[in-house]
Amino acid sequence: MLYIVLLLVLAALGLLVTALITATSLWAWVSIGLSVLAAIFLVIDFGRRRAQRKRAAKAEDTLVAAEPALEDEKPEESEEAAKEPAEDAEAEKTEAAEEEPAPAETTALLPAEGEVSEKEPAGDPAEEASDPADVELVSALESEVVVVDEYPRYHVPDCGWLADRDTIPIAVKEARELGFTPCARCTPDAKLAAEHRATTKS
Question: Compositional bias (Acidic residues) spans (predicted)?
Answer without folding.
Answer: 69-79
